[in-house]
């Protein structure tokens, strides 16, 4: 979907990965304390949550590129910042219209491996206790067994794929590419390349879900990836798929963002 006439909101919440899983919620997670994840953004259209995102610069949000194709033609998103999903009774602390959407340069030719997008805001967000930055930490790989946190406003019930009103978080475990590509898992549909990583739960009780796309994967305290896709929610053999924030991705981000002023 193309973005043009709506809004992006900064919230505190969950994750999702590919077009098939379009907007996921955290499965088996817990609600986070208000304002405890002040870097979380909610990409919204007409007040409806579509994807998560991360504020990495006062005027830039990092999210998933496939979220760009989920919005109505001629509509732009709005960003808001708050501790809960914005509702009529719980308006966002900050609501900022977007100015420009920049998908990763390789997304068109390889959408599964390059599901990353920068969103430029019309004006910089004012940083305070409730609105803060989270800087990516390049990780070219994550070992199987690594524990990571996923945060988002995605669905909490795989049978009722509606966004959560509160920001939630869950701990997932990285799964080896060999296992994730095996016939009993994804069977190379999609192919889990070196730019992707699978993470979930052996019992299928912990997962990102619809609405979590674009949200952060934080491993060992480092912002290491973004929710990208996956089939089903809470299925042990169909774990969440995440885009790694590799050194190549980090270099692309640095080229797009303005340089800091010289001291």
TrEMBL record:
It comes from Myotis lucifugus. Keywords: Disulfide bond, Hydrolase, Protease, Serine protease, Signal. Belongs to the peptidase S1 family. Snake venom subfamily. GO terms for cellular component: extracellular space; symbiont cell surface. One of its GO terms (biological process) is killing of cells of another organism. PANTHER family: GRANZYME K (PTHR24271:SF52), KALLIKREIN-RELATED (PTHR24271). GO terms for molecular function: glycosaminoglycan binding; pattern recognition receptor activity; serine-type endopeptidase activity. Residues 1-23 form the signal peptide. This is Granzyme K. Residues 26-258 form the Peptidase S1 domain. InterPro entries: Peptidase_S1_PA, Peptidase_S1_PA_chymotrypsin, Peptidase_S1A, Trypsin_dom, TRYPSIN_HIS, TRYPSIN_SER. It comes from the Eukaryota. CDD domains: Tryp_SPc. SUPFAM superfamilies: Trypsin-like serine proteases.
């Amino acid at each position: 979907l193309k973005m043009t006439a709506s809004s992006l909101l900064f919230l505190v919440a969950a994750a999702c990965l590919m077009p098939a899983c379009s907007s996921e919620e955290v499965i088996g997670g817990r609600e986070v304390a208000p304002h405890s994840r002040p870097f979380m953004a909610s990409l919204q259209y007409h007040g409806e949550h579509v994807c998560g995102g991360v504020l990495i610069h006062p005027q830039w949000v990092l999210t998933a590129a496939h979220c760009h194709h989920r919005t109505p033609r001629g509509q732009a998103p709005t960003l808001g910042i708050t501790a809960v999903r914005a509702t009529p009774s719980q308006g966002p602390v900050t609501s900022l219209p977007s100015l420009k959407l920049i998908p990763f340069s390789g997304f068109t030719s390889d959408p599964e491996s390059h599901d990353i997008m920068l969103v430029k805001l019309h004006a910089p967000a004012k940083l305070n206790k409730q609105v803060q930055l989270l800087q990516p930490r390049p990780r070219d790989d994550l070992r199987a067994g690594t524990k990571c946190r996923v945060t988002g406003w995605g669905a909490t019930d795989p049978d009722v794929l509606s966004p959560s009103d509160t920001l939630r978080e869950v701990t997932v475990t990285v799964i080896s590419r060999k296992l994730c590509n095996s016939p009993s898992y994804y069977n190379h549909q999609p192919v889990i390349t070196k730019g992707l990583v699978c993470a979930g739960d052996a019992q299928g009780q912990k997962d990102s879900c619809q609405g979590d796309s674009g949200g952060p994967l934080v491993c060992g305290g480092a912002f290491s990836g973004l929710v990208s896709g996956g089939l089903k929610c809470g299925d042990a053999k169909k774990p969440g798929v995440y885009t790694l924030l590799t050194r190549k991705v980090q270099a692309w981000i640095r080229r797009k963002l303005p340089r800091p002023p010289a001291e």
